[in-house]
Amino acid sequence: MLTVPAPPGARADVQAVCAAVLGILLPHRRTLDAGHDDTPDAFPAQLRQLAGPVAAGEPIVFTLPGFPCKSPNPAKVLGHLPDEGERLALRFLDGLCARIAAVHPPGARMVLCSDGHVFSDLIQVPDRDIDAYADALRTLIHDEGLTQLDVFDLRDVYGQELSHDAKRTLVHERYAPALETLRSLTRTDEPTRRLYQGITKFLFEDSVSFAGTRSARQRNCRRRAYGVMQRSRAWGELIAAHHPGAFRLSIHPQPRGSAKFGIRLLDAPDVWMTPWHSCVLEHPDGRRELLHRADAERLGRPVLRRGQPSHFAAG
User: Fold this and answer.
1) How far is it, in rounded angstroms, from Cα 245 to Cα 163?
2) Interval 238-294: pLDDT, tens
3) Which residues contact 179 (CB under 8 A, 6 or more apart)?
4) 77 - beta bridge partners?
5) Sign of the C-alpha dihedral, residues 194, 268, 71, 243?
6) By C-alpha distance, which of 85, 144, 95, 96 is closest to 282?
7) At what angle do helices 190-206 and 214-242 cross, to 10 degrees?
8) Own/partner pairs for 7-11, CB < 8 Å, 24+ apart?
9) How far apart are CA 207 and CA 153, in angstroms?
10) Is the entire prediction scored with pTM above 0.70?
């Protein structure tokens, strides 16, 4: 039974629908928490986010920052374009919206806030590869008939005229928190510390062309990790300004009480793993799992889709 106090005047049926929508999301929550059963009443912030559109009889809008570009590490991914991992993740998200429509007839819409250009200089991926990835993502959504998904990126905010560097500067100057604020949070706030460590790990793994020593590489990645976190928070603020009232999803693990809800897109052995840092291994029983390319390659044979590398099949 939902125990969160309803806003004044809220109807019992609105509360029930909000709980039902959250119940659809909870089995896919990305989290580092353990030992607790997830129930809707443990997430009052998310229930409040749902209450507005549900009470108004409007579609629920989800914003999900992510789908930036493929990792530059060839031991992780098959190339720089979306593949089976993205295809399955997109189908999963569109399917979530369809399931939500069964309990909330006005339906739901998922806005994929592709953030590659926001920090491409920091993750050392060329902007042309990020454009190619985002364009291919839109094509994939169209070809798969995924009508509940939209893609939002810096081109939707600042158009095509400004350079990517100019757009990044505008986002950073307007929305990014102070560096010292993040450094302080990393020391005092456990979720922020874990995020910093996770981003540093990704940057270290992806710095395949770094020519210095391991310790110099580590220092470089720690510095860049703070920049990624600054820009990520800035991107989140920009998204909130352009999509007010949306339900905020995250591809990073989120603790209870967070304003954002972590969402797991596909099965993976690592809670931080995403389709753009890995590739798909299809098991003989049909189960699909995200693994780094080097691991998937040892366990399966390559599979092509439309003549392009797609994933690996075991057995």
Assistant:
1) 30
2) 999 999 999 999 998 888 888 999 999 988 877 788 999 999 999 999 999 999 999
3) 226, 230
4) none
5) negative
6) 85
7) 120
8) 7/48, 7/51, 10/51, 10/55, 11/55
9) 25
10) yes
